[in-house]
Design brief:
With 383 residues, the protein is an alpha/beta fold. It is built from 13 helices and 17 strands. The structure holds pyridoxal-5'-phosphate.
Amino acid sequence: MKPQDIPTPFYIVYEDKLRENLELISRVKSEAGVKIIMAFKANALWKTFPIIREYVADSTASSLNEMYLGNEMLGGEVHSYCPAYTPETINEFIAGSSHLTFNSISQWKRFREYVDKWNSDCGNHHVSPGLRVNPQCSVIETDIYNPALPGSRFGVTADMIGDSLPEGIEGLHFHSLCESDSHALAKVLEAFEQQFGKYLNRVKWVNMGGGHLMTRKDYDVNHLITLLKEFKSRHPHLEVIMEPGSAFTWQTGDLITSVVDVVENQGVKTAIIDASFACHMPDCLEMPYQPAIAESCEQGDDTIAYRLGGNSCLSGDYVGDWYFKKPLVTGDRLTLKDMNHYTTVKTTMFNGIQHPAIVLCNHNGRCSYLRRFDYNDYKTRMS
Ligand SMILES: Cc1ncc(COP(=O)(O)O)c(C=O)c1O
């Protein structure tokens, strides 16, 4: 099956692009001597995991479901971090995780005895407890993705810890980046070492969180490797862990849609597509950002401007404008670029509109369905 033979709408994941990202991540891992694990929050298309597992089998989970998926479908270590564990979830987290990061000192005090009990009873499956710290170094412009905003609920500050780390803590975790470059990491690392350096000789590992967009074309990978090596030479006893999500599936897939009508109101032309920004590309409204469309062009003297509107009843379910050389007509296919990381995991079935299928395009350009959705999928999410 070729992409052009597949009815729209569908997400398409390109195996060769995924492998390119995985190869770069593997290079950083081996040259810098760090552990890089995959964050499920950005990608949970588990039928692609046999490809991912060839390079990386360890993952980070932010919920029990992600943890189960890591154990079942990737099979490596699962490092869990969840803002708050509960008496109902803690034992499951302990049994399924290699590392368990606590978001607050009160969480650690509440659940330490569960971890200690497991570690004394359970032979060779040691769970390594860590504490999330907040270096309060703000390098992200979009507030919704910024864990360093004043009043953030994520992680403890050095003044909350005081002179020494709570007993039993084996690692420190910080997450302060989002689609960031290595220079932003350098700033955060400086703040981290200034504020938390005094605790580092007490711990075995440091997890530098996610947001390292090392697979973006303009990312200075060599600078990242140097930065990590320098950090490691200052703290040779530490295992360094990074848990990017987006970097794994950055620019590895698109959403292919068709125009189903073109309407015009007060001079604004809207092409309605057989997909929805609200349901199938939520970050376009949340971030917000305008995705690239393969068939569009730069604005010029003879180009025509269109909004694209989702096929839902939400008034704000549109993004604009793009420019085209020819008028759009019903049946035209449009390729919304880079719709894999965070997109496929965040979709909803709002309005019950047709959910895009998920397709894998292998290195020969041959496609196969990973999943198709029908009325039953919509119905079984409700009761
Ligand atoms: C704790 C934590 N780790 C890792 C990630 C993955 O970040 P990214 O996908 O930006 O690399 C996130 C994203 O929100 C996160 O909150």
